[in-house]
Amino acid sequence: MTQDNETETVKEASKAVQLASDRTVLASERTYASWLRTGCATLIAGLAVMRFMADVLNDWETRVITFLLIVFSIFCFTIATWRLRQLQKWLPYSEIPHLPFPMSVGLSAMLSVASLFALFALWQMNGR
C-alpha cells in the first residue's frame, strides 16, 4: 500500500510539472505577442508624431522623436524573438508545441524592415 501511494504521488507530481510547463509555453507566447503589440504601437506613434506634430514642433524635434519611437519599435520586435528563443532553449519539451522559431524570426524581421522603411520614407518626406 505504501508503494502504491508513492507511485500515485509521483504521477501527480509529474502531471503538475507537465501542466506548469505547458502554462509556461503559453505565457511565453503571450509575452511574444505583447512585445510585438508594443512594437507596432510605438511604430504607429512615431508615424503619428511625424504626421501630426510637424506643425507644432521644430523639424529636428519631430525627427528625433520619430527616430526614437521607430528605433524602439525595432528593439521590441528583436527582443520579442530573443525572449521566445531563450525560453525554447530552456524548456525544449512540452505537450503544447512551441511557436516555430523561423516563424517568429520571420515575423519580427518583416516588422523590423517595415519600420526601417517607414523611418526612411518619412525622413525623406519630412523636408518636402
Automatic annotation (TrEMBL):
Lipid bilayer topology: Multi-pass membrane protein
Keyword tags: Membrane, Transmembrane, Transmembrane helix
Alphabetical list of InterPro entries matching this protein: DUF202
Protein's cellular compartments: Endomembrane system
Pfam families in alphabetical order: DUF202 (PF02656)
DUF202 domain sequence ranges: 23-89
Bilayer-spanning residue ranges: 32-52, 64-84, 104-123
Main location: membrane
The protein, known as: YidH family protein
